[in-house]
Amino acid sequence: xxxxxxxxxxxxxxxxxxxxxxxxxxxxxxxxxxxxxxxxxxxxxxxxxxxxxxxxxxxxxxxxxxxxxxxxxxxxxxxxxxxxxxxxxxxxxxxxxxxxxxxxxxxxxxxxxxxxxxxxxxxxxxxxxxxxxxxxxxxxxxxxxxxxxxxxxxxxxxxxxxxxxxxxxxxxxxxxxxxxxxxxxxxxxxxxxxxxxxxxxxxxxxxxxxxxxxxxxxxxxxxxxxxxxxxxxxxxxxxxxxxxxxxxxxxxxxxxxxxxxxxxxxxxxxxxxxxxxxxxxxxxxxxxxxxxxxxxxxxxxxxxxxxxxxxxxxxxxxxxxxxxxxxxxxxxxxxxxxxxxxxxxxxxxxxxxxxxxxxxxxxxxxxxxxxxxxxxxxxxxxxxxxxxxxxxxxxxxxxxxxxxxxxxxxxxxxxxxxxxxxxxxxxxxxxxxxxxxxxxxxxxxxxxxxxx
Length: 452
Prior knowledge:
Organism: Eublepharis macularius
Shape: globular
CATH architecture of the domain at 223-309: Orthogonal Bundle
InterPro entries: Dimethylallyltransferase, IPP_transferase_euk, IPT, P-loop_NTPase, Znf_C2H2_jaz, Znf_C2H2_sf
Distance between the termini: 74 Å
Family: Belongs to the IPP transferase family.
Enzyme class: transferase
Order of helices and strands: EHEHEHEHEEHHHHHEHHHHEHEEHHHH
Main location: cytoplasm
């Protein structure tokens, strides 16, 4: 099979899907069938520790098929970036291609996967990024994130008003990233992104594809089935020793940080789903009654199940929005494999997946049709909207439309309506309540305009 594909570019196989759909299982099976190697694209699996909660491949599975990008960063490192990941993983992919092996990327961290598929990242100047002992980098972004959000946004507005207008003032990470790009390259983030989009193969979502032959497999399941499966997986994690893993990690890495009041659940492995949900239980265990400890434990378990289900929905939403609803020159085809019935795995998942990858290897069209979804109306994901009534800034047209129909906004709208006695003004506002039109017309100035 590999010999037949020697004259053409081997495919980069990417397995997408929500947590709990069996991505790791399929990756292992494809790796064994095709002689490929697996590259994890999970931002939490890169760290040492918390093997159960981050659902890492077992030592036995890693012995069967070579896995990369797992457990190589010290858990106390909090500044390992997507650029670091992209650079290391890209080098691995090139090495595998040169050895005529198929790279199989599997994971659920969206921006990690995007960094391997598209030319979407801006490279900072290497001279300003000093390597850390664990392989991460000490960069300007970390320093900037220590500043107040509004101050960061004010600075960005001064140097790159276009990008500032697309970012929420409270989104410190993205605002700091844009400032970092400007400081380290001398060009604004918006200028560099525009340049990427104008390159051959580029489009509204970024630059062109990084590799010419991506084979994208998406595992999906009925939501009710997936929810039940995720709850069962949390129970299985508990049975496998999750609590002891969390206790040990807390003792080794988090207790001292808490004593120094410098614990941080927004960066590094400490933001992992599962660790922060058991925070109250971990810090009070042995210091409160057994009954209270049990209540906190059950609270943590239910929180973990809830946040896991929500994360699964977020992952599926990303696949639909990034791949299926925004077709263009830089959106590769996606082949869907339903995993609702695990008893049909061989027939409905493994064999079709092998056929699809084999078709890519042979340079022919798979018999399986790629998934196609109706394209949604054009919308701007980065347009900034200001709701004067609610005193909020909303980023994105979809989020804006949801906001102006929300209960909280309609409450403020009616409150504003009642504060004006002019019948014509009231009629105009009432119309907006019923139709959900743009609420910016409800500013004080536009209330007067409604009368004319």
